[in-house]
Write a structure and sequence with these properties.
This protein is of the alpha/beta class and 217 residues long. The protein folds into 2 domains: 3-117, Response regulator (Rossmann fold), CATH 3.40.50.2300; 124-215, Arc Repressor Mutant, subunit A. Helix content is 41%, strand content 23%. α2 (34-42) packs parallel to α3 (62-69), α6 packs across α7 and α6 packs across α8 (186-199).
Length: 217
Amino acid sequence: MATILIVEDEIPINELIRRSLQSVGHTCISVFDGREAIRIHDSEEHDIDLVLLDVMLPELNGYEVFQHIRGTPTIFLTARSSLSDKVKGLTLGADDYLVKPFEMLELLARVDAVLRRTKKGSKEFEVDGVKIDFESRQVFLNGYPVDCTPKEIDLLEALVNNRNIALSRDKLLELAWDYDYAGDTRTVDVHIQKLRKKLDMEDRIKTVYKIGYRLEV
């Protein structure tokens, strides 16, 4: 997984982001002002894969920080929602722009997307003899290939990217079937049962009462 620098001066938001990212396996470093962000970024102690950068910061604002750290994948986080602010952030070269308030699942999805585009994301996942190669889209159990449909692999990827987080059936439809999918949520149940059986993951893919499912790692 990735090492992510969180630059956000509001302590509760910084902490919530940190806990959410760590829950899916990322390593996080939290700072609360622009100058400290540059210091940590430039130190030889850390190899930063991604920066989550608030625009309104003490000492130096996010745009000023970004001018210094340019080249490191960056997602701007800001309460500013005007088109001009978005255009400025993206024109400077940011990889994405997320307006507060946002859902943590949306942040996790955008983080994963940027890491994949910049080749910083994890290409494989392993647990209990199950190995998923995201690049080749192959799945193995105890070293033997398992025949999974493309949609089953999409569903696995959604569970892995949001592991330890309870996902509703609607959210899984959104993540694995895309936003416009108009299918019945029972489709998710059917695919979950098939994955549990194929990969012997009954104890890993948990049913969350009245919500949906969670991959526990």
